[in-house]
Amino acid sequence: MNAVVIAVLAMLILSLLRVNVVLALIAGALIGGLTGGLSIEKTIEVFTGGLGGSAEVALSYALLGGFAVAISKTGLPNLIVDRMVGMIGKNGESKAKTYSKVIIVILILMMSIFSQNLIPIHIAFIPILIPPLLIIFNELKIDRRLIASVLTFGLTAPYILLPVGFGGIFHDILATNMADSGLDIDMGDIPTAMMLPVAGLVVGLLIAIFVSYRKPRIYQDHQVVQVEKSEYSKAGIIFSIIAIVAALAAQLYFGSMIIGALAGIIVVYGSGAIKWREADNLLTEGMKMMAFIGFVMLAAFGFADVLKETGHVETLVGQAADAIGNNKALGALAMLVVGLLVTMGIGSSFSTIPIIATIFVPLSLQLGFSPMATIAIVGTAAALGDAGSPASDSTLGPTAGLNADAQHNHIWDTVVPTFVHYNIPLIIFGWIAAMVL
Questions:
Q1: What is the pLDDT of residue 225?
Q2: Whole-structure pTM over 0.70, yes or no?
Q3: Burial 71-94 (b: 16+ CB within 10 A, else e)
Q4: Best exposed site among 150, 220, 385, 405 by fewest CB in 10 Å?
């Protein structure tokens, strides 16, 4: 049996049994290493060495957390929450409640989409904005699995489709690795090729909203642990918006989330909206807020390095290529399923592209797929598994906000719903794109 398959299945089964995700990743890494022929000592060594690979990610999240907390101190999140509360129906009529639910879902969807391109703070906005809204969700009896689905859609669909912000990084990695694998493409073709797969995500979102989670769900009004509420002033709001613009500009210019977050923090402090003597406390608060996600990412990098060390990632991709033969329909499906397994094992769609492109690009051309179809296959195969993975920031972020009052389970209320509603449609629509483009 392939070590990647065994390790990923072990990690998923343990997670579904409510074992802590970090422990599930460590156990999965040990099982994968031993299955792949590594000794226990070598597995531990590789896992430990892999932890260092997440240093940049951990620092990025820490600074993004600090930036988010600094922005919260200016009062901008409170202004947004107050405006949202003001749009909610004041009476108990069902029409007013339905209208309020619609407004909330649309606004949260917009904020999550903007976090990937317009306001590049990624998941750092969720623990700031979502906890204050939980009492409103409870009053309206909104199923939090619906909100998790909306957030995860906004965290994944934009980078897959739009070449801006995180999407610019994803598209650049895709184009570069496809060129290195023998197929030069125009980056302008990527959004067109990925439009149909993203339509699958839209279908999944609509099913979650109008079918799966449309019924009321009861939650208790527990005290919510959140960042201390701040009053807002006109000057503070203006400078926070300037800081967001500066963060976006710096990130796009330097290609670094770290520099982007740092630029935003400097603008906030330089404006006087936040005092310099508060800097240390704010950064510490931000780091605490993102601590769980950081630990999961650390374990995920170690897990990924163990799987790479076994050599079974490439073996899995090669075995799929050998089994395909000349069957285009089977070939497209197999490549997508392998991409799902690899991404759930590696933990990042961005890191999956270099692994699968080296074999999938020549194989797609050999099977007679067009360049556009090949883009759709490789792009979709990489994106699969981001939503629905226990160790993905696209699921960890929503849980960080929705579980602020300990009533939202990471696996059963975020991971399983997003896996079902997004990975299944993404495979179907990605396969259709491969066959028609």
A1: 45
A2: yes
A3: bbbbbbbbbbbeebeeebbeeeee
A4: 220
